[in-house]
Amino acid sequence: MMVAMTGSPRRAWRIGVVDDHEQIVRGMRATLDEQTDMDLVVGAGTVADLLAVTDDLDLVLLDLRLDDGTSPITNIETLQQAEIPTLVYTSGDDVYLVRQAASAGVLGVVRKNSPVSELLDAMRQALAGDTVPGIDWAAAIDSDAGFVELSPQLRRVLELYAAGEPTSRVATELDISAETVTDYVNRIRRRYSSVGRPAPTKTDLYKRAIEDGWLPIPRRFRR
């Protein structure tokens, strides 16, 4: 007698959401409760809180602006270290932050005002390992001409100096000379000037660092 062998049904995809607005997490839970192939395992206000619960996730939906002050790059890199693919789920009102996410290796960008069907399609594409094309994604890539790429050392100098640290403190923090810090700052200024985004003052550098996602957006300017 032949007995047909059937494989075990595949478990639902395990989804995480990082957003500091509870209504977004609740809405996502309600949406995924109606899906048989996806399960919202954890929703958290920060990446750290999410990973404290579990890193056994197939995909994370990540908001780019969080109240803990973490930068999109830091959050994306942290999720990558945990080997969790990321799909940006955002209002999409800051092209530089979206561009940062695109360059950091997320699979795509979905606006929060997108139809549910579009969101679910994007999630399934990302779960299949595919990038998710879209207007925001294209705009982010096309904005490369105005974006200033910085080495890790220049980025760290900009983060410290633009945040208000004096040259001497930046030098001490990075274990380099004050002259080297000044040279790096001038180099950063030249790069911004070359793409039509001059930053002649420290305040201008602070603005550029926020625009490019190197520094967190001040709380009073967040949505």
UniProtKB/TrEMBL annotation:
Keywords: DNA-binding, Phosphoprotein
Domain of life (superkingdom): Bacteria
GO molecular function, one term: DNA binding
The keyword Phosphoprotein appears for this protein: yes
GO biological process: phosphorelay signal transduction system; regulation of DNA-templated transcription
PTM-bearing positions, type 4-aspartylphosphate: 63
Keyword Phosphoprotein: yes
SUPFAM superfamilies (alphabetical): C-terminal effector domain of the bipartite response regulators (SSF46894), CheY-like (SSF52172)
UniProt-listed InterPro entries: CheY-like_superfamily, EvgA-like, Sig_transdc_resp-reg_C-effctor, Sig_transdc_resp-reg_receiver, Tscrpt_reg_LuxR_C, WH-like_DNA-bd_sf
Domain Response regulatory stretches: 14-127
Record protein name field: Transcriptional regulatory protein DesR
Gene field: desR_2
